[in-house]
Amino acid sequence: MSEVIGTSSKDKAQQGKYWISSSLNDIEKIIVPFLLEGESNKEIAYRLGMELPTTKYHMRNICDKLGAKNRTHAALIIQKTFYSIGFVFFL
């Protein structure tokens, strides 16, 4: 995402929100609220009725797409982006 000089922080957050939501696929978007709640891969797999390796695959994709080092970093990126514009995930 390129930096635009003179862009307000709210505009940057909106751009970040669009970038995150457009880069994640539907399953990854479903996993995000569970990630934000701090649930383990095993818990997410059980709640969504998927195999653990599948959950791990999607979690790794989320981290890769966000440029996150790990799931905690991914959650922080998502929280900073969405909460800065007043968006909250609901389960």
Write the layout of secondary structure elements.
Blueprint: H1 9-23, H2 26-36, H3 41-48, H4 52-66, H5 71-83
Helix pairs in contact: 1-5, 2-4, 3-4, 4-5
Describe this protein's structure.
This protein is mainly α. It has a domain at 10-15 and 28-83: Arc Repressor Mutant, subunit A. It has helices at 9-23, 26-36, 41-48, 52-66, 71-83. The longest helix has 15 residues, at 9-23. The N and C termini lie far apart (29 Å). The model is unreliable at 1-9 (pLDDT under 50).
Quick recap:
The protein has 91 residues and is mostly helical.
Query: From the helix content, strand content and strand pairing, which structural class follows?
Result: mainly alpha
Q: How far do the termini sit from each other?
A: 29 Å
- Counting DSSP E segments of at least 2 residues, the number of strands comes to 0
- Number of helices in the DSSP assignment: 5
CATH architectural group of the domain at 10-15 and 28-83:
Orthogonal Bundle
CATH superfamily name of the domain at 10-15 and 28-83? Answer: Winged helix-like DNA-binding domain superfamily/Winged helix DNA-binding domain
**Gyration radius from CA atoms, angstroms:** 14 Å
Beta-strand residue fraction? under 5%
Unreliable segments of 5+ consecutive residues = 1-9
Provide the residue-averaged pLDDT: 79
Write the element-wise H/E pattern from the N-terminal end onward: HHHHH
Characterize the largest beta sheet: strand count, sense, and whether it forms a barrel: none
The portion of residues assigned to helices is 55-70%
